Amino acid sequence: MVNIGIVGSGKGSNCRAILQSIRDGKLDAKATVVISDVLEAPILQIAGEFGVPNAYLPPGHFRTRLEPIVEEQLVEMLRNAGAEVVVLAGFMRVLKEPMLEAFPRQIINIHPSLLPKFPGLEAWKQALAANDKWTGVTVHYVDAQVDHGDIILQREVPILPGDTPESLHARIQAVEHELYPEALAQVFRDMGRS
Ligand code: GRF
Fold first, then answer.
1. What share of the chain in percent tops pLDDT 70?
2. What is the pLDDT, as a whole number, of residue 19?
3. Would the pLDDT of 49 be above 80?
4. N or C end: fewer C-beta atoms under 10 angstroms in the chain?
5. CATH number at residue 31
6. What average pLDDT score do residues 33-51 get?
7. CA-to-CA distance for 14 and 80, rounded, in angstroms?
8. Does residue 92 lie within any of the structural domains?
9. CB 44 within 8 A of CB 71
10. Of all residues in the chain, what percent carry a pLDDT higher than 90?
11. Reduced to 3 states, what is the DSSP secondary structure of residue 5?
12. Ligand 1: distance of its center to the CA of 161 in Å?
C-alpha cells in the first residue's frame, strides 16, 4: 500500500474518484492528507466526507505559483503525512524547486488533453477551437515545465458534432475519473508496491 497526498484547488471530482477507488479496494493506497490553496474548495469537503485529514494552505501573494516559503510548508505538510506519492488533482499553480526536489518523480498530474497537444488552461476549448475530431486525457509525471513530463497513461476522447465546451469537458472528466486511478495503480506497480 502506498501513502498518497492529494493537492487541488477546485471541485475535486478526480480526488473523489481516487478516494472512491481506494474505498472500493481497486487502488492499493491510503490517502493521508488532502491540501488546497483555496479555502472554500469543495475538494476539502470531499476529503472530509471520506475521513481524510485535510488542510487549507494560504498560497501567499503570487497568482500562478506558491510563495517559496509556502511551498516549503507544503513539502513539510506532505512529509508529515508520510506521503510517498503526490497526486495533483486540479491544482492551479505551477510547482517549483521546493516540491520538485523534495519529491523527484513522485508528483503526478492529470491534464485534459492528449499532451503534448494543448498544455495550459481550458485545454478542451483549445481542442474545440482547433477543430480536432479527438482529444483526450493525459496522466503524467510533473517536471519543471507546465503540463510536461513523462507520460504514464493517455486515453482518447471523441469530439462530437455540436459539442460545446461544457459537453466536451464533461465527457473528458468522465474519462479522467477512470484513468487517474488506473494510472496510479500503474505507478504503484512500477514502484514494485502492488
Ligand atoms: C481536471 O479537468 C484536470 O484535468 C485538470 O483540472 C481539472 C480538475 O477537476 N488538471 P476536478 O477538481 O478534479 O473536478
1. 100
2. 98
3. yes
4. N
5. 3.40.50.170
6. 98
7. 23
8. yes
9. no
10. 99
11. strand
12. 24
Does any ligand 1 atom lie closer than 6 A to the CB of residue 60?
Answer: no
DSSP H helices in the chain? 13-23, 42-49, 68-80, 97-102, 123-129, 165-190
Give the residue, by CA position, lying nearest to ligand 1 atom 2.
Answer: 112
pLDDT value at 194 more than 80: no
Domains of the chain: total = 1
Does residue 111's CB lie within 6 angstroms of at least one atom of ligand 1? Answer: yes
- The residue contributing the CA closest to ligand 1 atom 12 is 12
**Per the domain annotation, does 34 fall within a domain?**
yes
State which residues form the domain around 77.
Answer: 2-109+139-154+177-190
Averaged over 160-169, what is the pLDDT?
97
Look up the pTM and report it: 0.97
Using the CB atoms, write b or e for 105-138: b if 16+ within 10 Å. ebbbbbbbbbbeebeeeebbebbbeeebeebbbb
φ, ψ of residue 76 to 5 degrees: the values are -65, -40
Do the beta carbons of residue 7 and residue 89 sit within 8 Å?
yes
For 95, the grid coordinates are 510547482
The position carrying cell 491544482 is: 91
CA of residue 130 to ligand 1 center, whole Å: 21
| Residue 9, SS3 per DSSP | coil
Q: How far apart are CA 10 and CA 101, in angstroms?
A: 25
Residues with catalytic annotation? 111
Answer whether residue 76 is part of any domain. Answer: yes
